[in-house]
Design goal:
Strand content: under 5%
Largest sheet: none
Shape: elongated
Number of strands: 0
Oligomer: single chain
Distance between the termini: 107 Å
Number of helices: 6
């Protein structure tokens, strides 16, 4: 037998084996990765259940975002699983040259059917709209509250600046004390003077 032919033959066979081994590795890790995501999701849901009463709105939003990201990752792994399942169904056909193109086209068909949006089983658009409307109203209330707090903080800052001015502090000293620039203190004091003179 031709030595060059033997080398080429062995190289092609080794490439096929390496490719199949890598494919098997991908196939074999999917279940473990999906299981780990499921366990983490379960942990987060129980954490939410056990601490719901003490969570702030921001904490709830962070947990919801984490759960959402995990669900997206799980959906991706689920799509991988569907490809793997179809690959396993077809893998015994690989030995026949005529079947190899068929396998690729079947895998491509499976890929096209993946990533379909989830269809809700219980909640409908009205329920979603109601929950989101409450959330939007609460957000509006939080913004109003934050504005009110900023306004109150602004008044407190004005009082602090006026007190320091009456004590003879320089604008530089005032700026250092309240954590502002000297220019900001100057503008604020000028505005307070205009308001007082009006």
């Amino acid at each position: 037998m031709n030595e060059q032919y033997e080398k080429i033959f062995l190289k092609k066979l080794q490439d096929c084996i390496i490719g199949l081994d890598e494919l098997d590795e991908l196939v074999n890790t999917n279940g473990e990765r999906q299981s780990n995501i499921d366990l983490e999701l379960s942990d987060w849901l129980h954490h939410l259940q056990n601490n719901f009463e003490v969570f702030s709105r921001a904490s709830l939003a962070n947990v919801a975002e984490k759960i959402g990201n995990l669900r997206l990752e799980r959906a991706s792994l689920r799509n991988e699983y569907e490809l793997i399942k179809r690959y396993k169904e077809l893998s015994n056909r690989m030995m026949s040259k005529d079947n190899r193109q068929f396998i690729i086209s079947e895998i491509q068909k499976t890929m096209k059917n993946l990533n379909q949006p989830y269809q809700n089983r219980i909640i409908d658009e009205k329920m979603i709209a109601k929950v989101e409307a409450i959330t939007a109203e609460e957000k509006k209330q939080e913004i109003t509250k934050a504005k009110r707090q900023r306004k109150e903080s602004s008044k407190e800052l004005d009082q602090i600046l006026l007190k320091m001015k009456s004590e003879g502090k320089t604008q530089r000293e005032m700026a250092e004390k309240v954590g502002m620039t000297q220019a900001s203190v100057s503008i604020r004091l000028k505005r307070l003077k205009e308001v007082a003179n009006a």
